[in-house]
Structure formats: structure tokens, C-alpha cells
Amino acid sequence: MRRIRSKGMSPELHVRQLLHHLGYRYRLHRKSLPGHPDIIFPKLQKAIFVHGCFWHQHSDPACKITRVPKSRLEYWAPKLARNKQRDEQSVALLLQLGWNVLVVWECQVVYPDSLKQRLVSFLNS
Questions:
Q1: Pairing status of strand 27-28 against strand 100-105
Q2: Assigned CATH topology for domain 10-124
Q3: Residues in contact with 20: Cβ distance below 8 Å, sequence separation at least 6, in sequence order
Q4: What element of type H or E holds 48?
Q5: Cα–Cα distance between 122 and 52 in angstroms, integer?
């Protein structure tokens, strides 16, 4: 578990690279905001979370990455449920503070064209 990092993982780097190529400049992991969003745009008051499908339990049935572990379920079930609950609380707090929030899932990074459209529409709205 110690080797699992929370910053600079591959899906996040792909999103950051795509945003940079689109001409957007951003800040990373603002600790003063609830949930420490992965990417923020302070002037626009927009935040982006890049979630791993396994760790944050993506609920889309088409997602092939999300799975529930078969062993040590007494450990994993509460841990993954806490992650989902913490994510929901972070998004709710950010919305209360007036921020707009977008969640990008690991499985969505594989489709750069649709991701590009989502990011542009989110940031330009």
C-alpha cells in the first residue's frame, strides 16, 4: 500500500498533458481545498479530479478496470467504501464553496477525443 501514490500517476499525467496542449494553464493539488483536487483553475473556480477506477470504485458497468477483490473482503470493502464516501464529501464541499467540479475516470483517459471534448466544454462553460 505504501507504493501507491496519490500524485503524478499515468491517468493524471495524460489529462495534464492534454490540457497543456489545449493551451490551458493550471495549478496542482491545492491543499487548502477539500479533497485536494488534482488540477485546479483558480480564476475560473473549476477543479478536476482524476480518479483511478479501482481505488474510487467507478460505478459505470462498461468500465473493465473496476472490480471488487475476492480475497480479504473484510478489509477491502470498508476501505473502498470510505474512498467513495470521501470523494462525494469533497465534491459536495467544493460545490458549496462555489467551485465547479469535473471527475475524470481512469478508463476515460483511453479515449482522448471524447476526453478533449469534455474538458473543453467543462472549462468553457
A1: unpaired
A2: Endonuclease; Chain A (3.40.960)
A3: none
A4: strand 46-51
A5: 20
- The DSSP result for 15-42, as a single string, is HHHHHHHTT---EE--TTSTT--SEEET
**Cα 62 from chain centroid (whole Å):** 18
Amino acid at 6: S
Cβ proximity of 50 and 39 under 8 Å: yes
Query: Mutual orientation of helices 112-124 and 10-21 as an angle, nearest 10°?
Result: 60
pTM above 0.85, yes or no: yes
pLDDT by residue (tens digit) across 4-20? 555 667 899 999 999 99
Q: 49 pairs with which residues across the strands?
A: 103
| HSE-up (13 A, CA, CB side) for residue 75 | 5
Cell of 94: 467544493
Q: What is the pLDDT of residues 38-78, one digit of tens each?
A: 999 999 999 999 999 998 999 988 888 888 888 999 999 99
Rounded CA Rg of the chain: 15
